[in-house]
Amino acid sequence: MTPETPGLHHVTAIAGDPQRNADFYVGTLGLRFVKKTVNHDDTGTYHFYFGDGEGTPGTNITFFPWTDAGRPGRFGAGQPKTTAYRVPADSIEYWLERLESNGIDVEREERFGETALRFADPDGIELELVAAESEAQHASETTSGNAASNETEATPWAGGPVPTEHQLRGFRGVTLALDSFDATAGVLTDVLGYELEAETENRRRYLSASGGPGSVVDLVESDAGRGQMGVGTVHHVAFRAESVEEQREWREAFADHGLSPTEVIDRKYFKSIYVREPGGVLFEMATVEPGFTADEDIEELGSTLALPEWLEDERERIEQRLPPFDGPNAGAEE
Ligand code: ZN
Asked: Is the pTM of this model over 0.90?
């Protein structure tokens, strides 16, 4: 018996220029720069995390900015296509205006009873802001502070350029692009406990049994051919594991399904296992603990180059090799 999947933990993508990447996610989208570290497997590359005021699991998009010299990726089947954030229902007009005034092309779409604003980040990574029908109700239900443990709530960031009432509320979900639905759908339903919620001709919507934030996975069939990982593509999607014990159960569940999960890897802010699902998308199961305050206080998040203990001896050499980056330009409050 495997645990219930509570939804997304983070999404990780590959950007080009680090400055442009951070300026967009902080200055335009109003996320907090919650951690500046390096790719543990490639210490010449930064690893940026952007999230809510506390870097709550379920709100964080993370990037390896390969610089503009990095190999361009190509979108295609076997990749995450879209990362969707929740916004309050009455913030859609604010965001339409904000994005367009920043020169961003926005497509507005109605889908499964929700309004979605779709646009691309500066590297071409597709994002959506979704005004879920349930958002207003959800907010009023959880302001009592009695939210269930799996109902990760976004914490506002008072230091950002977006007024708190319009700020992104963490993930709504992800859309995965596939050659065909079935094998990936099988992992969602048979291993991760997702349930088919709705479908159209080319889109199936799955919801995690526990509901709550980051609980949507949409599948779309793509005839774009296989994608290639590189700048402008999403590298992997991480789901939350509430504990290391739960993570171990997930690992066994993936193996029982005939997949090949990795051993547990210490990512400093969470422990992770990875598994390539049969449609080609890399899944991760990441623990909620210890989180981003493992090495910085809440007030200080993102202010230093954070390195895990095992890289601390190499700090000077690592700092010299990293590309130019002055910290995010958060822009002016409006
Ligand atoms: Zn990850």
From this structure: yes
